[in-house]
User: Which sequence fits this backbone?
């Protein structure tokens, strides 16, 4: 069984069956997420370009979980060969800790060299058969070698979600003589152990297109990655960017938290979500709920700010959420939350209808992975 030290937010999965159940859970969670994103695009909550970008990050996240499942395939069975265990954040995350992503990036640097010194997959399988038949013993070392070969191959294939996923740029349109770009980047936030996707729509008044500007584009990329912290308000990030780049004007900034994941088996949760999962007593693979949060900050106009002795520059003015004055607190124009969960937990949630979830949009994952939108 997994550790039960309630004093720690981190949990090592050291039993083989437990580790396999954990990865199997994410195998079930991953496919419906793309359908939820498509539904949000249909409703106008995401643009078509944003849907494509988000879909790429979701696919990368699924590939990263697949790679980690291969790395830890023999958890609890090959302790001498694999001393490390998968560590997850069981408090307000449910995802692997940030250090797992750093280790995976380090493994990727050596993956090609490691593969060159390994027997082929066919050879390893042949050796396993011969050991099983000839020696009547479990070929644990060969199984471990094969799992690490498959892990290295997954790292080399790429398309993974890394601790830092560098900014990319997409041209959208021309507007009032300015180029409009969509900047996208993502991080695995070390403070909250969650994947976070950032989207910024920017008007470019520079002489050279940002995508081709060898002076501005590297600076923009470095700036965005340095500011990609969950603890920063969107208003802080947007105004900082607006101030540092006089000819780039952030029209909209979005931040998507792709989690946490709650599970009666793996995470500690209090309040309504914990009560719902406990009461649902859902079968294995259906005892989970995943929360998405989308924060939006939109520009409502412009103003002029002094620059130097005689000059001035354009600065954006942002609309903050007027509801009960929360805009100054959240630093966003609006914040929307979504919960994605299987049918059994949803039935309990609907029956209880706790106050904290009445305004949260629900997506119910049914048989075959179909997704049903529920208010």
Assistant:
């Amino acid at each position: 069984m997994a550790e039960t030290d309630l004093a720690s937010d981190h949990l090592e999965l050291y039993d083989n069956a437990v580790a396999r159940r954990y990865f199997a859970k994410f195998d079930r969670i991953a496919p419906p997420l793309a359908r939820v994103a498509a539904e949000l695009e249909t409703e106008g909550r995401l643009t078509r370009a944003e849907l494509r970008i988000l879909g790429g990050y979701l696919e990368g996240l699924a590939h990263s979980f697949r790679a980690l499942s291969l790395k830890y395939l023999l958890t609890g069975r090959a302790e001498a060969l694999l001393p490390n265990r998968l560590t997850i954040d069981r408090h307000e995350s449910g995802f692997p800790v940030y250090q797992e992503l750093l280790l995976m990036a380090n493994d990727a640097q050596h993956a090609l060299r490691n593969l060159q010194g390994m027997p082929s997959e066919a050879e390893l399988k042949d050796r396993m058969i011969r050991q099983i038949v000839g020696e009547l013993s479990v070929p644990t070392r060969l199984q471990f070698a094969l799992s690490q070969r498959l892990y290295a191959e997954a790292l080399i294939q790429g398309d993974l979600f890394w601790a830092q996923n560098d900014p990319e740029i997409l041209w959208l349109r021309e507007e009032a003589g300015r180029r409009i770009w969509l900047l996208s980047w993502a991080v695995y936030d070390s403070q909250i152990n969650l994947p976070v996707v950032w989207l910024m729509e920017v008007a470019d008044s520079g002489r050279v297109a940002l995508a081709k500007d060898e002076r501005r584009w590297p600076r923009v990329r470095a700036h965005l990655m340095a500011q990609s912290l969950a603890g920063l308000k969107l208003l802080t990030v947007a105004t900082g960017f607006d101030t540092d780049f006089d000819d780039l004007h952030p029209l909209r900034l979005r931040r998507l938290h792709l989690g946490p994941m709650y599970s009666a088996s793996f995470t500690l949760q209090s309040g309504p979500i914990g009560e719902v999962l406990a009461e649902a007593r859902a079968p294995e693979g259906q005892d989970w709920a995943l929360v998405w949060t989308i924060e939006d900050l939109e520009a409502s106009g412009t103003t002029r700010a002094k620059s130097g002795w005689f000059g001035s520059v354009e600065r954006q003015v942002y609309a903050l959420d007027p509801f009960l004055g929360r805009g100054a607190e959240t630093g966003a124009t609006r914040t929307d939350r979504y919960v994605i969960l299987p049918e059994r937990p949803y039935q309990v949630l609907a029956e209880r209808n706790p106050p904290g979830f009445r305004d949260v949009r629900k997506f119910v994952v049914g048989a075959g992975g179909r997704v049903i939108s529920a208010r």
Remarks:
- The first strand starts at residue 10 and ends at 13.
- The chain has a mean pLDDT of 91.
